[in-house]
Design a protein that fits this description.
Belongs to the methyltransferase superfamily. With about 290 residues, the chain is of the alpha/beta class. The chain is built from nine helices and seven strands, in the order H-H-E-H-E-H-E-E-H-E-H-H-E-H-H-E. The mean pLDDT is about 90.
Length: about 290
């Protein structure tokens, strides 16, 4: 058994339960989404179909709809509760902007019920870290994109919640946090999946809290539970939790406890194939002088 394998049923339940209060707590998610949207300013693509992977309560979906008013924006999330909130939030928006087309799909990104070569843009804000097979996921995303289509995403990197990870060290033999992929490895995965011209960026965003319980409550409010196979089967004991608190308190700076999030941004394009299905080379004749 892979102790870091993510239990998708647990993920689905956790995010559905968190859906009603998600927007009030998802400060980091909105900030990262905003920064991703700014990166679109230099991209000339005008997609007719946008697939929003891990759309949550639909805040980012609505921003995409505003940016591309003629596009069909497909909001896809593994948690039905998130999509139910998204639909309720979007009702007034749809009435106000009649030309806007928005649809909802409850599915797992690792097995997309989406036709091949059907969308011009795949967008995903802080969702890919919930995938067990990230190389296979990128292959799946490449499949649904049309030629010259764009994949743009953000995800958590290896230093995410490094303070909390340190606080849990030596407490017991269980996993308490997910394992995140390295930025350079993700770039290699994109190339292996057939994407061209991948661009990777990374930044660290640090949130501060008054105490450890506030850190944990924030994570719970956005549905970010520990869903790995190696998690503890029950609640942590009082003595163990006290040790975690003491370990975290050693990291207090300027009166606050830090929680670091390493944010990985990436985008890449689906290029025209260089060979046919039977291996013959394709020679382009549409060059422009």
């Amino acid at each position: 058994m892979n102790e870091f394998e993510i239990d998708k049923r647990q993920v689905r339940r956790a995010f559905s339960r968190a859906a009603r209060d998600y927007d009030a707590a998802a400060v980091l998610q909105r900030e990262v989404c905003t920064r991703m949207l700014e990166k679109l300013d230099v991209i000339k693509l005008q997609p007719a179909h946008v697939l929003d992977i891990g759309s949550g309560t639909g805040w980012g979906t609505r921003q995409l709809g505003e940016r591309y008013p003629k596009a069909e924006v497909i909001a896809l999330d593994i948690a039905i509760g998130m999509l139910q909130v998204a639909r309720g939030t979007s009702s007034w928006w749809t009435k106000l902007f009649a030309a806007k087309r928005e649809s909802y799909l409850c599915a797992d990104v690792e097995a997309l019920p989406v036709a091949s070569n059907s969308v011009e843009m795949v967008w995903s804000n802080l969702a890919l870290q919930w995938c067990n097979d990230l190389p296979g996921t990128f292959t799946e995303l490449q499949r649904v994109l049309k030629l010259n289509g764009l994949l743009m995403f953000s995800s958590f990197g290896v230093d995410t919640l490094q303070e909390l990870r340190t606080a849990f060290q030596g407490i017991d033999g269980y996993n308490h946090l997910s394992r995140f992929a390295d930025m350079h490895d993700i770039g290699d995965m994109l190339v292996a999946a057939g994407f061209a011209d991948p661009v990777m960026e990374m930044e660290r965003i640090t949130l501060t809290y008054n105490d450890v319980r506030a850190v944990m409550q924030d994570l719970k409010s956005i549905g970010a539970h520990n869903a790995t196979a190696g998690r503890a089967p029950g609640m942590m004991g009082k003595a163990a939790w006290q040790r975690v608190t003491e370990n975290y308190e050693r990291l207090r700076r300027d009166g606050k406890l830090p929680a670091t999030f390493e944010i990985i941004y990436g985008h890449a394009w689906k290029p025209a194939p260089k060979t046919t299905a039977d291996g013959r080379a394709i020679i382009r004749t549409d060059f422009r002088l």
